[in-house]
Amino acid sequence: MSTLTIDAGELTAAEIIDALEDGQRVVVRLEMLGGVHEVTLRHDGTTYYCDTPTTLHKHDSADEMRTCIERMGYGRD
């Protein structure tokens, strides 16, 4: 699995999901609480995952993942 590292807002939610569905792991760098943090997004063919520094979120569909990406500010509008 290859890894694509981006800054938050660099790609749209659709572009991130396309990369995940192509088998890439997407690492999103974002500034939070005075520092830079990384969130790892991945897809195992069935479930989408958002692995944050504190929590692992699971999503059952691309629509759920898109909502998460948009709500958390990982992708641009």
From TrEMBL:
InterPro entries: DUF8001 (IPR058314). Residues 2-76 form the DUF8001 domain. It comes from the Archaea. It holds the Pfam family DUF8001. This is DUF8001 domain-containing protein.
